[in-house]
Write a structure and sequence with these properties.
Blueprint (H helix, E strand, L loop, with lengths): L2 H4 L1 E3 L5 E3 L3 E3 L4 H9 L4 E7 L4 H13 L7 E7 L4 H11 L7 E6 L2 E7 L13
Parallel strand pairs: 3-5, 4-5
Antiparallel strand pairs: 1-2, 4-6, 6-7
Length: 129
């Protein structure tokens, strides 16, 4: 599933689009790593419901608008159906109510911005990185 997000794809005008370098978020231990890594690089967590059309639409739009170099930000992808308990841990750890889809931006160990649904694509991520 993640392969299609890591490859470069040519669009209709011959230009290559870089896919998002997702890091699968699958364990509670990764939350500690995310907090530690956020001291030196912005961390983003995208919570996605694989059965929700709205979530898929937001994820696709996010991918089309993604404009960061791989070394600028670490981007985690959480499949809510496979890891619902982990989503609850994220809500508790970062004190942000669970929603889906949802994006959290973590810097210096704390969430500096978050939004859900269409608001994800309205976040000015360039100012947060």
């Amino acid at each position: 599933m993640f392969g299609k997000f890591f490859k470069k794809k040519e669009n209709g005008d011959g230009k290559e689009n870089t896919r998002i370098p997702w890091i699968p978020l699958t364990s509670r231990e990764q939350l500690d790593e995310i907090i530690d890594k956020s001291e030196v690089r912005t961390q983003m967590l995208f919570k996605h419901s694989t059965t929700c059309g709205i979530s898929r639409m937001v994820l696709n739009r996010f991918g089309k608008n993604f404009d960061f170099k791989e070394n600028q930000v670490d981007l985690y992808y959480l499949d809510l159906h496979s890891f619902r308990g982990l989503s609850n841990d994220i809500a508790s750890r970062f004190r942000v109510a669970h929603q889906s889809p949802q994006l959290l931006v973590v810097k210096n160990g704390v969430v500096v911005a978050h939004d859900s649904h269409g608001g994800i694509n309205d976040l000015d991520l360039k100012t947060l990185v």
